[in-house]
Amino acid sequence: MSQWSDEPKKPGSEGEHDIDFLNGSSRRAESESRPPIDSETADYIARIEMEIEAEVKSKRSQGAFPPAFERRLKTIFEQLVPPGAGNSRRDFEALLRSSDRAAYFDIDVPIASQKPGVARLKKLLRMTQAWYLNYLAQQLNNFSTNLMRLLYVFDARVTKLEKSADSRAEVRSGGEFLKPCYPDMRETDGPVLQLMGQHTSRVLVADCGDGYLVARLRESGVDCYGIDSFGDDLEKPFAPHLDLRWQELREHFEEISNGALSGILLQGSIDLLPANEKLDLATEAGRTLCPSGVLAVLSIDPVFFDSSPDLAVQRDVAPGRPFAAETWQFVFSRLGFSSISVTKMGNSNLISGLKQGEHAKDSAARP
Amino acid sequence: MRRILQFVPSLVPGDATGMHAMMIGKALEAKGIETKIYVEEVKKNQIAGATRFTSYAKDHRHDDIVIYHLAAPSAIADFLSSRNETIVVVYHNITPAHFFEKWDQVAATGQIWARAQLSRLAPRASLALPVSKYNQEELIELGYGRSEVVPILLDPSIFASGSDSNVDQALHENRQRGRANFLFVGRLVPNKAQHNLIAALSAYNKMYSEDAVLHLVGRPFSKEYFKMLKNVARELGVNENVNFAMGVSAEELSSYYKGSDALVCLSEHEGFCVPLLEAMYNDLPIAAYDSSAIAETLEGAGILTKRNDPVTSAVAMRRISTDEELRRYLRHQMSNRLEQLSLQASRQKLYKALAILEPSLAEAEVAS
Predict the structure, then answer these.
(1) pTM, whole model, 2 decimals?
(2) Class for domain A172-363, per CATH?
(3) What ipTM does this complex have?
(4) CB pair distance less than 8 Å for B294 and A31
C-alpha cells in the first residue's frame, strides 16, 4: 500500500518514535500536510522505505543501537548543552552560581587606555563620580545580595519539598520489593502472549526487566521492544539482540506519535504511582495505540497488596496503591476501549482492552 | 501601474529570504513593474540596491503595494502595520521558540515576538504568499484571509558560476579512499539538528565500518551550539569526519553539491528547506527526516525516514549513497519535481497571485 494513498501519516507512524535527546519531541503535530504524488512513485518510495525499516530492525536486533549507546548519546547531549540551559539539578545550580557571580556591581571602572592622557582623564572622572556611583552601587549590591540569598533559601525549601514529593524515588525503591508479587512470567506468560501475540506490528513492554517477555513475543513473530528505567537488568538481557531501551515510561510516551503502537503492556512501577499519574500514563498509552490496538495492564490485586505482610513498607511509603480490576475497567472504558476483560494471574490482574476506531481517539478523554 | 515594493530584514548573500526577495524583484521588473527593496538593517556585505526601510516614509505613494517578507522579528512589521498601503505578507516560516530556549533566550523571545507580529498583520494583509502549504496552514490558523502558495524563487544560474578546485579535490580524494561524502547545507541551528546528523554519521561509520565524511555547510547561529556540535563529534569519535564549512563562496557551494554523494537532512522544522531545491538542481540524491514541510518540498524526489534516530538515518544514508538504481530513480523524480518548482513555474504563480492586486500582471502573463 502506498504511504500516500491513505490518511496522511505522521512521523513515527510505522510504529516507531523519534529519538532526539536535545530538542525534545514536540514535533508530533508537524508534518500534517502531505502532497499527492503519483502512485508509481509512491509505491516505489514506499517499498524503499519499507526495506530501510526492515534493515533498521535487523541492525537493531544485531545490537546497532543498544541501551548503552542510547544512554551514552543522551548523556553526551545533556552534558554538552550550555550550563543552566537544561532542566536538571546541575543546570539549576550552574545558573544559580553564575547569577550569584553577576550579582555584584563593581564601580571600580577600568581606566587603562592606549591614547595618551585618556587614562588620567578617566581616573579623574572616576574619582569625581565615585561618591555618587558608590552610593548607587551599594544599594544595588545590598539588593542583589539579598535577592540571591532569597533564591538560595527558596531553592533549599523547594528542594526539600521536591524530595518529600518525589514519588518516583519511592517507586524505584519500592518497585524491587514488588517483583515477587507479580506472576513469574517464565511460568505463566500464556495470557500475555495470547493477548499481544496476535499483533505483528510494534508492541511495547514497559518495565521489561531483562526482556523475557520481549524475547517470547519476538519468538511469536511480534515486532516487540521493551523499556525500563532501571539500567541493571537491561545490561543483562534474557536473550541477545533484543531491542531494550533505558528510559522512563512517561518520557518515552512523549516521543511516540499518535497511533504508532499496536500493543502496550504496562506493569511494575505503575502500581505504586499516584492515581493521577496512573491515569496520565493510561491516557498516553491510549493516544499512542492505533485503532484496534491492545492495551494491557498487569497490576497487583489491591486486596493482596493491602493484606500481604511482606508489603508493609511499600504500603506505607509508596505514593500510590494498585487499582482494583474494576477501577482499571472503568478507566479503560472512559478512555474509549472496548472488549475489556480481566484475567486473574496469581496475585495480579491482567486487564486488557481494544482501542476503538479513529472516532474513539478524539472522544477519548482523561477520566 | 501600481508600484510593488519589498521589505526584508536584511539582504545578504546566502540568505534564503533575501534571495527570494531579489528574485521576486527581478520577476516584477521583467513585467515592467516599478519595484524596490527596503531593509531593516543595512549590513556591510549587503547586496547593492536596498535602502533602509524608514526612508519609505518619504518615498511612499498611497497606492503602493508593499510585500513584507516575514521570517524573523523585525521593526518593519510594526512600521508597515501602522501604515495604509496594501500589504502582502510573504511567509517564510518562524522557527518555534522552544528550539532556541536552551541556547539563546533572546533568540527564543525573538521568535515569539515574530509570531505575534505575524498574527497582528493578519487583519492588515490583503494577500499572503506562503512559500509552502505547510506555511499556508499556519497562516489560515492565524486568521489570514486570501493566500496563495508561491514556492521559493531560486535562480539556478548561481550554480553555473563554476566550482572551487580545492573543494572538488578534497571530495574527490575522499571518494578515491572509499569515503562517502554526505552533505547538509544550512545555518548551524538547533532546529536543523546538525547534532543528529553527527550522531547518524557516527552510527553509519560504526555499522558499516566506514570512514564517511559529513560536510556541514553553514554559519553557526550561536557559539554555544557550534561548540556543542564540535564536542559531540569529538565524544562520538568522528571529529575528523565532520567538516564545518562556514562562509563558503558560490563556487564552493556548487562544488559541495556536485561532489557529494547525498544530501542528508534531519531538520526538525522547515518552512520550505531551500537546500533540498538546491540539491535537486545539482542532481544530488536526498535522504531526509519527514518533518514539517520537507515531504511537501520533496514530493517524492527523495527518501523520507519516519524516525529520527541514528540507526534509521544511517541505514537511509547507506541506501541513498550506494543503491545506484535508487539514485537514478530519484534523479528522475528530482527532474520532474524541478519542473514544478522551477523559477519559471514559481514566477507564474507569483504573477497569478499578485494579479489580484495588480491586474496588469495577469495581462502580462498572457502576453508572456
Answers:
(1) 0.71
(2) alpha beta
(3) 0.83
(4) yes
